[in-house]
Write a structure and sequence with these properties.
Helix content: 25-40%
Radius of gyration: 22 Å
Number of strands: 13
Catalytic activity: D-cysteine + H2O = hydrogen sulfide + pyruvate + NH4(+) + H(+)
Family: Belongs to the ACC deaminase/D-cysteine desulfhydrase family.
Keywords: Lyase, Mitochondrion, Pyridoxal phosphate, Transit peptide
CATH class of the largest domain: Alpha Beta
Oligomer: single chain
Number of helices: 18
Strand order of the largest sheet: 2-1-3-13-10-11-12
EC number: 4.4.1.15
Cofactor: pyridoxal 5'-phosphate
Largest sheet: 7 strands, mixed
Shape: globular
Length: 448
C-alpha cells in the first residue's frame, strides 16, 4: 500500500536532525498565509499513519423500559437492542415512538489487544518515531495500565523496543494488561514512593537505556525543535537511517520518553483524524447536531474530539465523564494540550483560537462518583446485561460510565434535534484485572 506523504516538521539538531532554519516551505506557507481552518487541518492530516484507514464501525443502541421493576439505579430498569448496521448520513431518521437510542462508535474493535482510544493516540506517533529512527520507547503507568500495554504491543509490531515502568509490586498472577505488557515489552516495577516523581524517574531510566552513545528526547522535543536545541543528552548524534543501523547489529540507541497515558499534543491528531472521517456525509455528516460522550482518563481523547469539532465547524458537543481527576485539573490539562497543539503545529487562526480558548470539552461528574478504579456493587451485573443484550462489552471502570451518560442523554433527546453518540474506547482486558481485585462481585455472575 502506498503511504501518504507526511507533513514535515522541524526537528532537533542535537540528535542529527534539521534545525529550524530549514523549516519546510510547506509549513511556512501555512503559517504565513493563515489558511482557512479546515484547509489547514486537512494539510496537517496529510501524513503517514499507523492505521491504514480511520474507518470504524458504527452501531445504534435502542433502549426501552423493562416491564418489571428492579432495584433502583440509572440502568437497572433498562433493556437494550443493538442495530448493527443503522441508517446513517441523510438517512438518519427522525425520532419517533417511545424508545430512545444512541449511536456507538466501535473503536473497541480496532485492535484485539489495544484499547481504541490508545490506538487513536498512537496513530500519528508511531510513524513519527520511525521517521526519526527511534529505537526505544520508555513510558510508565499503573500495574494494569492500558497505555503501557498499548505501547508494548504497538512497538513490538513495528520493531521498536518498549520499556515500561509500572507502579507498585509485581502481582502473583500476571493477567490483563499487565500480562500483555510483560509479554510484549520490558517491564520494571517501581515502588510507589519513587513513582510519585515519575518525570525524573523516566528520565533517569531512559538515560540508562540509551547508554553512553545514545540520546534521550521526548515527543515534545521532536515537535518544538527551535525551543529545545540543548535538552537532548547526546554525545554522539545518530544520523543513519533505522534500516542502516539495524544492519550494523550493534548501534547507538535513540530513546523517546512518552508521557503517562500518551497525553501529548501529537496524540490529538489521531482523534482529529477520526472526527474528520465521521463527519463525512455518508456517516454522521456536518449538519446534524451531535452530542458526543466519552469516558475520560487523562482527557486527551475528549480534547481531540473537541478540537476536531471546532476545526471542522461541526455542530457537535463533546461531553467527557471525569473518572480520574478533579474538574479544575481536567480543565488545566485541556488548556495545556491546546496550548501545546497550537505551538507545535503553528496554528494561529485568531477566530478559531478564540472559540477554542472558551473550551472544547464539557466535563461532567460520573452518575455515581467514586475514587478512580473502584467498582460499585451491581455494576458488573449491569455490564453483563448490556453485553448479553447487545454484544458490546463494557467495563465498570471506564466505558460503563460513558454508556450511563449516553443512555441518560438519549432519553432527554428522544424528541430533540440532536443525536447522542458514544465513543467506545475499549477496556476489554481490564476486566481480567478487575476480576482479581473484586472476586466477590464476579463470583455473583456465576451465582446468578
Amino acid at each position: 500500500m502506498k503511504l501518504q506523504q507526511r507533513l514535515p516538521l522541524p526537528l532537533p539538531v542535537s540528535c542529527g536532525f534539521r534545525s529550524s532554519a530549514h523549516l519546510p516551505h510547506t509549513l511556512q506557507g501555512i503559517a504565513e498565509a493563515k489558511l482557512g481552518c479546515e484547509e489547514f487541518v486537512a494539510k496537517l492530516l496529510d501524513r503517514r499513519w499507523t492505521l491504514p484507514s480511520p474507518d470504524t464501525r458504527i452501531q445504534q443502541i435502542v433502549s426501552a423500559p423493562k416491564r418489571i421493576e428492579e432495584e433502583d439505579g440509572l440502568l437497572k430498569d433498562k433493556s437494550w437492542f443493538n442495530i448493527p448496521n443503522p441508517l446513517l448520513g441523510d438517512k438518519i431518521t427522525d425520532k419517533s415512538g417511545p424508545d430512545s437510542s444512541f449511536y456507538v462508535i466501535r473503536d473497541d474493535l480496532l485492535h484485539p489487544l489495544i484499547n481504541g482510544n490508545k490506538v487513536r493516540k498512537l496513530d500519528a506517533v508511531l510513524p513519527l518515531l520511525e521517521d526519526h529512527s527511534v529505537t526505544d520507547v520508555v513510558t510508565c503507568g499503573g500495574c494494569q495500565s492500558a497505555h503501557a500495554a498499548a505501547v508494548a504491543v504497538s512497538c513490538a509490531e513495528r520493531g521498536l523496543r518498549s520499556h515500561l515502568l509500572l507502579r507498585g509490586e509485581q502481582p502473583d498472577i500476571l493477567t490483563g494488561y499487565n500480562l500483555i505488557s510483560t509479554m510484549y515489552g520490558n517491564v520494571k516495577y517501581v515502588p510507589r514512593s519513587v513513582y510519585a516523581n515519575r518525570e525524573e524517574t523516566l528520565k533517569t531510566y531512559a538515560s540508562s537505556v540509551a547508554g553512553g552513545n545514545g540520546c534521550v528526547l521526548s515527543l515534545s522535543d521532536i515537535l518544538e525543535a527551535p525551543l529545545t536545541e540543548q535538552i537532548v543528552s547526546s554525545s554522539h548524534p545518530i544520523s543513519t537511517s533505522m534500516d542502516d543501523q539495524r544492519s550494523l547489529g550493534n548501534f547507538s540507541r535513540k530513546v523517546v520518553i512518552m508521557n503517562e497515558g500518551a497525553g501529548d499534543s501529537i496524540a490529538l491528531l489521531g482523534v482529529i483524524r477520526l472526527v474528520h472521517h465521521l463527519s463525512q456525509s455518508h456517516l454522521l455528516g456536518k449538519e446534524k447536531a451531535m452530542k458526543f460522550v466519552v469516558d475520560a482518563g487523562t482527557g486527551t481523547t475528549a480534547v481531540g474530539l473537541g478540537l476536531g469539532a471546532i476545526y471542522f465547524g461541526l455542530p457537535w458537543k463533546i461531553t467527557a465523564v471525569m473518572l480520574a481527576d478533579t474538574l479544575d485539573n481536567y480543565r488545566e490539562r485541556e488548556r495545556r494540550l491546546i496550548s501545546d497543539f497550537k505551538r507545535h503545529f503553528r496554528f494561529d487562526l485568531d477566530h478559531t483560537l478564540r472559540e477554542i480558548d472558551r473550551g472544547a470539552v464539557h466535563w461532567v461528574e460520573r452518575y455515581h462518583p467514586r475514587k478512580f478504579g473502584n467498582v460499585i456493587k451491581g455494576e458488573v451485573e449491569v455490564c453483563q446485561e448490556i453485553t448479553r443484550q447487545t454484544g458490546i462489552l463494557v467495563d465498570p471502570v471506564y466505558t460503563l460510565a460513558a454508556w450511563e451518560l449516553a443512555s441518560l442523554l438519549s432519553e432527554k433527546e428522544a424528541r430533540g434535534d440532536a443525536e447522542v453518540v458514544m465513543l467506545h474506547t475499549g477496556g476489554t482486558l481490564g476486566m481480567f484485572g478487575l476480576a482479581q481485585r473484586y472476586k466477590s462481585y464476579f463470583q455473583m455472575l456465576k451465582d446468578r
